[in-house]
Amino acid sequence: MSYAMVRSVGLVGVAGHLVEVEADLANGLPAVALSGLPDTALHEARDRVRAAIVNSGQVWPNRRITVNLLPASLPKFGSSFDAAIACAVLAAAGELPLAGLAGAAVIGELGLDGSLRPVRGVLPMVLAAARAEVGSVIVPVANATEAALVPGVMVWGADTLGMLVRAIRGEGPLSPPPAPSPLPTASAAPDLAEVVGQATGRWAMEVAAAGGHHLAMVGPPGAGKTLLAQRLPTILPELDDEAALEVTALHSVAGALPTGAGLVRRPPFQAPHHSASMPALVGGGAGLARPGAISLAHRGVLFLDEAPEYSRRALDALRQPLEEGMVRLRRSAGETTYPARVQLVLAANPCPCARPSGDADCECTALVRRRYLGRLSGPLLDRIDVQLGLEPVSGAALFDAEAVAESSATVGARVAVARAAAVARWSAHGWRSNAEVPGSVLHARRWRPPPAVMAPARRLLDLGELSARGFHRVLRMAWTLCDLAGRSRPDRGDLAAATELRRGERW
Ligand SMILES: Nc1ncnc2c1ncn2[C@@H]1O[C@H](COP(=O)(O)OP(=O)(O)OP(=O)(O)O)[C@@H](O)[C@H]1O
Ligand SMILES: [Mg+2]
Ligand SMILES: [Zn+2]
């Protein structure tokens, strides 16, 4: 036989696509031609595959070899087709009985020594194979646990091309996937119980978690902004199966998944430094684009600490993803999109001089102060429902031996109940949290609270202390407060409390 086809899987963004790797051997001068839109890494595959075959003790066919990757229209990146190319070439040369592969998809990069190396994005690749009803996949051993997270597909691991070839010939075994390693112990995880006093801050976290609201905190150094933000994910509900697969797939494509780990079940937390590059923040890079922090925070929390220190460009780049829930990356091979539905948390000092004592010792001029927080204003701040001013916790509260703060588990249980209420109310309309509901809907007759309930917020609106947009945010948070209280409709108290969460800011 001088022709063979082996299945593999390619990735575009976080979506896998089945790829057919064809090899044809013809008489003529020995040469190798690759076709089917390969990028540079794929051209390098030619040399890697040849060396791997020879160094595995197999025979490289000295003929005219054509390798073609189908569909040609699909952009192909990276080195994950190596193993399939090697199998197709050996099979075309009659060295490998394709029946031994039984329609399996083969995924993996080859080292020159013939080792089978792990690749990024195995989870979404295997998901695609499962959807295409490919019954089994063969992957590098280091990727086998990850591959096996996908239900309904047989997964086999191989260490080397030699092991793979022997198995296909029926001369040796492949490795079953190792079970996922247990999660790290919970005791190391941050917990809301560690935050002493700071009742308003803790309450704002609970409200933000319950309604899915973005949150901004302004306060002097040491007020506990970072402390609180890191604990927001600990009170968010676990990811459901669909979300867990989505999040794990993104981390897999980014190469951020630890070997042998299970599905990501906790909402992620990402805190990119303000000096982070644009690719690190929103994604990019050569070949198969890496998801950035905003996509790694998908279904979790994106924390911008010292938010005014981020460049204008970085803050601007976040606007489109925040609006659409996904990142669009323009690439030479076309647009790549990555999911990026995050809960945004901003923290800022009130001014650049950042005195721990707060405003008392501040040396900044009024203009400098305004400009500093002004960097956040406009489109970004406009989307943030909970805007909180924080003061440092008092010494008395910090040393109050009697005080026992509620744990993340306790608060998280209330959050879960409130979230369920919001889902029950909005899911028929396509929203899953109060934060997603447009202000116009909340203000429309069907949902608008009666005038007596709205009175406190109305008065602020009339006084010009609340903008129309701010008013909608108050309405939105009032729904979250009523969900937390287990009421079916916001009452006067909810509206008043929502107003406080909105006006706690000094900016
Ligand atoms: N309410 C609190 N309960 C317990 N510890 C606290 C509290 N507030 C502050 N701390 C302590 O102070 C430290 C500083 O808090 P944190 O880093 O969150 O402050 P910050 O507001 O982010 O300050 P900065 O503006 O300097 O980043 C924390 O690591 C913690 O040890
Ligand atoms: Mg901080
Ligand atoms: Zn200052």
UniProtKB/TrEMBL annotation:
Give the UniProt family note: Belongs to the Mg-chelatase subunits D/I family. ComM subfamily.
Which top-rank group of organisms is this from?
Answer: Bacteria
- Its recorded name reads YifB family Mg chelatase-like AAA ATPase
InterPro entries listed in its UniProt record: AAA+_ATPase (IPR003593), CHLI-like (IPR045006), Mg_chelat-rel (IPR004482), Mg_chelat-rel_C (IPR025158), Mg_chelatse_chII-like_cat_dom (IPR000523), P-loop_NTPase (IPR027417), Ribosomal_Su5_D2-typ_SF (IPR020568), Ribsml_uS5_D2-typ_fold_subgr (IPR014721)
Q: Which NCBIfam families match?
A: YifB family Mg chelatase-like AAA ATPase (TIGR00368)
Q: Which SUPFAM superfamilies match?
A: P-loop containing nucleoside triphosphate hydrolases, Ribosomal protein S5 domain 2-like
Indicate the segments forming the AAA+ ATPase domain, all copies: 211-394
Its source organism is: Natronosporangium hydrolyticum
Its Gene Ontology molecular function terms?
ATP binding
What's the short name of a Pfam family annotated to this entry? Mg_chelatase_C
SMART domains attached to this UniProt entry: AAA
